[in-house]
Amino acid sequence: MIKEISKIITFLIGLVLIYSCSEYKVSIELDKIFSNYYGHKMISSGDNFPDFNTRRDSLDLFLVALHERLDIKSFQKKAAWSDKNLYDNVEFLKSKNWLKNDNEYTPTIFITSNEQGEGLFEFSLPIAIKIANALEREIPVIKKMFQKTDLSISYTFESWAFFILSDVLLDNWQINNVEREFLQAEFRPERHHKNYYYGIMENVHYPKEQFGIYGNQYTSINDSLSLNIYGNNRNVAMKRMKKDKSFRDSIINNAAKINTKDNRIFEQMATHFKPVLINILSNEINYMNQIYEVSGYIDEISFEEFFIWWYHFIYTKATDILAENRVLTIPKEGNFYSLIER
After folding, report:
1. With the CA atoms of 139, 141, 143 and 146 taken in that order, what torsion angle do they form, in degrees rounded to the nearest 10?
2. What is the pTM of this model?
3. What is the rounded CA–CA span in Å between residue 71 and residue 65?
């Protein structure tokens, strides 16, 4: 009898230890979430954007915790939410189509930890290599098109290769084509009568962009001119321009201007490369679906929402491959500056 009681006590102690370890692990994970920096990114146009403060009352961190499959009650305790706060915030996020409940609460926007993001970069390599190789083959044609721009009077193609091959042919001038012709998405996801993609990404290298992803940031100069920063160190540049007028003036005075003629030729470049890019992506659809499934995003968001963010990892990887092959040169500070006529 004593032996049986001893076994029961040992079993119960084991359960307590397992629970305590699990609770301890959740506590550690929540501490990390509340201390880490998370960048918020959006793909939208016009007035399509969230109509609420996405960081209010730790709403973004709540979604991160749900994405990490952490216990809701543990998050509630960490965030010091009352039962009413929890209920109200859940219902609020559901009303905005940022949260769903299919057996369990899961986010409906793209969320990634640093570890997951690094994984997405690794998964992007086979596709990125094919894109980079295709871009190299198209350079003679792209160079000829560049010679028709007014920019070519003062600048070489090589000095613009980073911007053209990465931003024009893969990102800003191309993203709508990828949405329409590869994803065949007529509209972006609807959220509270707005259409936009939204992403929350852990950034362990802030203020550098999350995962070093290249992207655009615009700031108005006057009624007819905008400064475009393309690169992966935009946060630093924007902060410095706000604090240092001489730095801002130097950037504006030295940046080349893309006029309407040049912009039209850039659009022609993107159109020229579009079928090549779409063909590469279409041929990789089975691989993409495998990654979508094994990554776990299939339980949270649509393939379209997953891919549009993963595509940013893919073209960034392709850009870095071109840099490694010395096809283009990435600016030392990570940014390329240009003025664009509106």
Report:
1. -130
2. 0.91
3. 8
